[in-house]
Amino acid sequence: MKKLNIPKYIVRTKWLIIVAVILFLLVFGRVINSPTLTKTAIVLGAGIDYSKEKQEFIVSTQSIIMASSSMQSNSQTTYETYTCTGKTIAAAMDDISQKMGLIVSLAHCNVLILSQEALKLDHLQLIFPLTGMYALREQTIVVATDRSPDELLSLRVGTTISAPYFLQSAISNKEGSDGLIRTTVKDMLARSLSRSQATAIPYITASEMQDQPIDQQGEQKGNYELDLSRTLVFNHTDSQIIEEDLSEILAIYLSGVSFGSVNYAAETGETVEFRILDKDVSSSAKGRNVKIEIELTVDMLDVQFIETDEVLTGASEQIKKAAEGLAKQLEERMRKLYELSKEYNIDFLNLQSKVYQSVGRDLEENCLGTIAFEPTVKIEVKEAA
Predict the structure, then answer these.
(1) pTM of the model
(2) By the 8 A CB rule, do 200 and 232 touch?
(3) Rounded to an integer, what is the distance from CA 355 to the centroid of its chain?
(4) Comparing C-alpha atoms, which of 182, 184, 151 is closest to residue 47?
(5) In this model, does residue 32 exceed pLDDT 60?
(6) Which candidate, 181, 384, 376, places its Cα nearest to that of 297?
(7) E-strand spans in 125-244?
(8) Helix (H) or strand (E) holding 298
């Protein structure tokens, strides 16, 4: 094999570049202001509300406060929630920073709670101050709630204490699980700026736990449990709540990856729980006709109230019929979602965007009612490995 001869000037240039990079890091790395953790408020969750009467933003944050090294041995993790108002989001965030005496950083904020009033504002102008000035991540999860964002941030959750930390654990690591839609800041902006101008996010409701946790000091008080089974769909003018059974198929349709399970319940009482192993969603538009095909690969998780003397498996006829019945139910729910989108005039299925790709610029605005929608659901039952 012939030896490759590299010219000497290329070798010299390579080493010059390496030395230049090292010098750059040594010189400029020392002049970059990098605040210590003890001077930084590490925000777990943030919330934005808007008052039309006062024309003010209500901004809230919940932070973990890092103790200094001299106090660390006796310190416990503390979560502090602050709420400030301002004519702009930046003004409210600056007030929070002054109240805390710390530099507010959203670099570790994984949950952004938006009120329904805030969602009616320009989404780009709503998000840009947070990403541009306070380092909010594009992968931060966006949620809505039945109460004000500052209330949800302040709630004590029995399992993890911090509501934002609970939401981060429940939503961030999975996508499309049991009706949960993982909508990031980037997803929300992309969909709201598209031709459909609509999207969907988890809708959080909270209720006080009937059975409070018990520790060595006795029963704790004031713990809440959060329900994430519903979805809020919205555009720039309106928002509506989608209930649990429809949220499940909507999550499967919109999410890139789906986990969790889907349940089939027959009119005669038989129930079969299927675990989702894989899914594929394809769409096509011809003129104003949109076809959606959802293919699910599942395995049998649980069976109840089926009369049989055999041990049921994924290959059993009863289970295959249940899968066919579930596919029909999911198709019907997709049709119902389309009817709701027309009724609400919120294109959360993103159908106008798909038609626009086929029709082009001649497509008029607000044409959701003129679109024909044909959903198909196929379910294949496999034995889990």
Answers:
(1) 0.84
(2) yes
(3) 26
(4) 151
(5) no
(6) 384
(7) 141-145, 156-157, 161-162, 199-208, 214-215, 218-219, 223-234, 239-242
(8) strand 289-304
